Fold this sequence. Notes:
By secondary structure, this protein is an alpha+beta fold. Helices cover 46% and strands 19% of the residues. The chain contains 16 helices and 11 strands. A hairpin with a 5-residue loop joins strand 1 and strand 2. Helix 3 runs parallel beside helix 8, helix 9 crosses helix 12 and helix 9 crosses helix 15. The termini are far apart. The relative contact order is 0.16.
Amino acid sequence: MTIQTATLSNGFRIVTEHMPGLQSAALGIWVGAGGRHERAEQNGIAHFLEHMAFKGTTTRSALQIAEAIEDVGGYINAYTSREVTAYYARVLKADVGLALDVIADILLNPVFDPAEIEVERGVILQEIGQALDTPDDVIFDWLQAQAYPEQPLGRTILGEAPRVSSFSREDLAGFVGEHYGPEQLILSAAGGVDHDAIVSAAEKLFGGMAQRPALTPEAARFAGGESRQEKSLEQAHFALAFESPGYRDPMFYTAQIYSTALGGGMSSRLFQEAREKRGLCYTIFAQSGAYADTGMTTIYAGTSGDELAGLATLTIDEMKRAADDMSEAEIARARAQMKAGLLMGLESPSSRAERMARMMQIWGKVPPIEETVERIDAVTCAGVKAFAAQLATQAPAAMALYGPVSGAPALTDLQVRRAA
């Protein structure tokens, strides 16, 4: 399997990987624009735009877009994150050209019909309402807002209902004009694909796009703080976040290994101590996420209101204990989990296409898998313990609580315990 890249004269980038033996392919356009690229008055518009992508173009109706892909047995979808919006399809290899044409059509020729905007506005408002009714979803938005207050990275991807209710056709077209230039787009394809054929098709479809300057998003500032929402629920939802390395930071893989060992599976410290030994909760996990210039190590647990105080203090204690006695065996297990997850995922052309797009956005190239594995293997137990000590005692922290949480300690109390 060989990764090949090309760049059109206007800066539009293409990356492909032919996977011998596959009869299908995954392909899509990854746009370097998401929630953090929005101004305050635009919050939620990147996600709104993603919804509108399938609502009709100058050459296809919404039904014709769906039929074009489903008539050949494929599927098409999209998602919005804080740094990326992706439009992608999975089809048989004979239909790669068709899928690329449809994706190009929805990106280059949207009509933004006012009637369809109103229909989709209602759908998104329902989605916002559903998220607010899902405690273990909404708590992460509140945690993000506490970590990065009053800045784009801290705002919800869906947007607030009053703002979403006001978006116009001109607002949608304006965001496209600001952020959907050729240099912000990456075409990534994996599976039964022919690189030269895709480059030729991309030249015809995207080569005429005019270059435009990329807008740099506001730099992230992890501030921290506490959000506490009391509500009569069966479970209390508890989430902590600590400032961690961004994905270009040399410590990125150390943070990933640490969070896996701390709370990444059934053998992890938090799962064993909080759930298996003490029965304090049903769900508990830790994970490390990263952005271009910052990152967050997050711990989440769901428990009863009566157990929340004990679970919160136990979490801090386990973080501090990890800095003292994290073992070589735990690090080896975390490394194995991380490598297995990476390599198993790459058996899917969809995962390969997404990885290549993200690597191109981050590094401007796709590092070999062997290089990534080497970086994971290079993480040492001593390095993880040093990172654990810094995270447990010094890193800025944020906390979100939702449900029967009146008995939970304040973040300031947990900060005192961190420093003790």
